[in-house]
Amino acid sequence: MIIRVFLTVLVLSLTGTAFAVNDEIPTSHKQIQLSFAPVVKQVSPAVVNIYTRRTISKSVRNPFFNDPFFSHFFHDNFRGGRMREQVESSLGSGVIIESNGLIVTNAHVIKDAEEITVILNDGREFDAQLALSDEKSDLALLRIKPKDEYLPFVSLKPSESLEVGDLVLAIGNPFGVGQTVTSGIVSAQGRSSLNINDFNFFIQTDAAINPGNSGGPLVTLDGKVVGINTAIYSSNRGSLGIGFAIPSEMLASVIAAEKMGRSGVEGVIRPWLGVRAQKVSADIAETLGLARPAGALISSLHSVSPLKKSGIKVGDVAISINGHDIRDPSEMKFRMATVPIGEKANVTIIRNGKEKHIIVQAIAPPNDPPSRKTTLKGEHPLNGVTIANLNPAISVELDIINEESGVVVLKTSTNARFGRMINVGDILLKINGVDIKNVHDVQKAVKRLNTQGFSMFISSNGRTRQIVIK
Q1: Least-confidence region, from 57-71, 181-195, 230-244, 438-452
Q2: Domain coordinates of the chain in residue numbers?
Q3: One fold for both 159-259 and 270-361?
Q4: Distance CA 174, CA 444 (A)
């Protein structure tokens, strides 16, 4: 009797919970046999296999090179071995998102590809052209020409509609075995403690994702794409139930940028903020009188930052953009990256314990001051090196975040005596005793005679070092 009462209470409590969350418990054999098959039939025809080919050069050593007896016969010039060209193939997945043949995949799937072949689930094969590769988001767009053929496609759905615990499907071509469907749940939203791409904002799922799944869709049970599978957490390249997908909002912004011509050689041209921010810790939250540790604390602003122009100050805490809560600087960067250039964003900040709503214009990285790209010529150690005035546009191109002004190295030269001592992105500080503030200063300094030889101070990855040639 006690057991029967306990079971009754348990069933009632479960039933109450079910009603509370609007879920249903299967009550018939038909319901128990519910399947993902209708969703798979709807989406899988639009999921494609992507095969790429590229030519690479590899060093081929003589088989006797490491032999103790023969090794001393080889001259130092042969230590690198002979170079031989080889054709390398790779595979990945993608999904058709428009009936005219627009396909999305990962940028790393098609990187350096000379030939791209797309194979549909029904066996049709197309040569694909690269429309856009955006390495910062790890997304790429391909186009195929279907002529008068019908192409299946799927629609995007905002990933913000997801909740942790929602069921999702991952579809792709793992290990090249053929199209495969795996199921799981949304394990987390807004994962940012990763180093996969420049935005570090991902959907985490336990649906099995393996090599070859990259570029395939993460799909909801209504047949919509909420993400593009891009990476797994694994020590042996196998699935451990921790996979990551790029949210559909980022994909939508890449598609819009390509169609509106807001993309370039380096990928999508995104809004520039000119800001450095830090995560709000529990101690910082307590000091600032915040209810909880969340948001992005503004630690510095570029002199021409659109945030600064709109009235945001150092010490403000950004807590939302266009109504989306901001948990940390990575989410702030992600949310602004999805705002089209030319439009405005509503940024909510906390200043002195009070909320303020500030309108920020989304602008492209300004080329101000003018870069004045220059290749140095003359009888000096920097002959052939290309330099430019540092500005926001150049900083974004070279991923420089700690410097606001100066002269930066854009290209080194094998002919320059400093060619192997300096790197792209190095900041020139002083040459032959002349402080460097712009390109003209460099042109003047390299002509200056110095009895001590040629001396140069540079900043490389935040560290200052001196190079002297006598």
Answers
A1: 57-71
A2: 159-259, 270-361, 374-469
A3: no
A4: 58
Which residues touch 302 (CB under 8 Å, ≥6 apart)?
A: 274, 275, 308, 392, 404
Q: In whole angstroms, give the CA distance from residue 305 to residue 275.
A: 7
Q: Given this model, what pLDDT does residue 62 score?
A: 54
CA–CA separation, 386 and 345 (whole Å): 37
Joined tokens for residue 114? 């000379």
- Indicate the pTM of the whole model: 0.77
387, 428 in Cβ contact below 8 A? yes
Residue 108: CB atoms within 10 Å: 20
Burial string for 1-39 (b: 16+ CB within 10 Å, else e) reads eeeeeeeeeeeeeeeeeeeeeeeeeeeeeeeeeeeeeeb
d(CA 314, CA 140): 36
Percentage of the chain beyond pLDDT 90 is 46
Homologous superfamily (CATH) of 270-361 is: PDZ domain (2.30.42.10)
Closest CA to 347 of 380, 309, 379, 378: 309
CB 360 within 8 A of CB 345: yes
Give the architecture (CATH level 2) of 374-469. Answer: Roll (2.30)
Tokens encoding 430: 């002083």
Amino acid at the residue 114 = E
The predicted pLDDT at position 91 comes to 84
Phi-psi region of 462 (alpha: psi -120 to 50; beta: other; left: phi over 0): left
Which residues touch 49 (CB under 8 Å, ≥6 apart)? Answer: 91, 92, 93, 94, 118, 119, 173, 179
What is the maximum span of the chain, computed from C-alpha positions, in angstroms?
104
Other beta carbons within 10 Å of 134? 24
Reply yes or no on whether the pLDDT at 281 is more than 80.
Answer: yes
Residues known to be catalytic? 108, 138, 214
Architecture of domain 159-259: Beta Barrel (2.40)
- Please give the structure tokens belonging to residue 169: 């499907």
126 phi and psi, to 5 degrees?
Answer: -135, 145
At 4, the pLDDT band (50, 70, 90 cuts) reads very low
As a whole number of angstroms, the distance between CA 344 and CA 361 comes to 5
